[in-house]
Design brief:
This protein is of the alpha/beta class. The chain contains six helices and eleven strands.
Length: about 220
């Protein structure tokens, strides 16, 4: 069983990630949490936790880790300084630690629009620029990676179906449960092809949609 460190485990998407991973036949989730008070949610489900704060030293969280999913975010209610500290610098520090610990793959939860962040309007531009800088750092790191850029997130049910493209040209949304499934699917180091793409809710099964996109580079809708 490969140990998967979930950074941002206590967020809405992070909790879904950990729950889905806990029943996966190949992976064991390790939930990185910032506060002791968050521990009980995971331990009651039999999920191991490790303490780590993105704004401090969290190097110990990487001990024995095989792969990483970075799903942390500063949230919509915080200022630009927190966005930079978490979404950009926190991600960059995580990538550096992954390199140091020879992590097999680093999967990052980015955002639709990050590819063209310079063209975005405020206040989204600052957020998307932070995501883009983290994405570009990951691409240049030499780590095996996947960059998943969902559209508007909802708390809707898991459907297991998506649309995917390098850049999607349609509006839409996607449930956090489906995003979690895509992030987990991208842990597979055997996947070949462009590992940076946008996703929305769709009509094609996750594994099939990803396979078709990676093979052809064409939109799957």
């Amino acid at each position: 069983m490969e140990k998967i460190l979930i950074i941002g485990a206590n967020g809405k998407t992070g909790r879904l990630l950990v729950e889905q991973l806990s029943s996966h036949p190949e992976y064991t989730p390790i939930a990185m949490i910032r506060e002791k008070s968050q521990q009980s949610f995971f331990e009651e489900k039999g999920i191991k936790t490790v303490m780590g704060d993105l704004e401090k030293d969290f190097s110990q969280a990487f001990t024995g880790i095989d792969k990483v999913i970075f799903a942390a975010g500063s949230g919509s209610k915080t200022g630009k300084d927190k966005t930079k500290l978490v979404d950009e610098l926190g991600a960059i520090k995580s990538i550096d630690l992954a390199l140091k610990n020879q992590v097999k793959k680093f999967v990052i939860l980015s955002s639709r629009g990050a590819e063209n962040a310079e063209k975005a309007d405020e206040p989204m531009q600052h957020y998307l620029m932070a995501k883009k800088k983290a994405d570009e750092y990951l691409k240049a790191s030499g780590l095996p990676y996947a960059i998943v850029r969902p559209g508007k997130l909802t708390d809707g049910p898991y459907t297991g179906k998506i649309k995917v493209a390098a850049v999607l040209n349609s509006k839409g949304e996607i449930s956090r449960a489906d995003v979690a499934a895509v992030l987990i699917h991208m842990l597979d180091t055997s996947l070949q092809g462009s590992q940076a793409f946008e996703i929305l809710g769709g009509k094609v099964e996750v594994s099939e949609a990803i396979q078709l996109f990676l093979k052809s580079g064409q939109s799957v809708v």
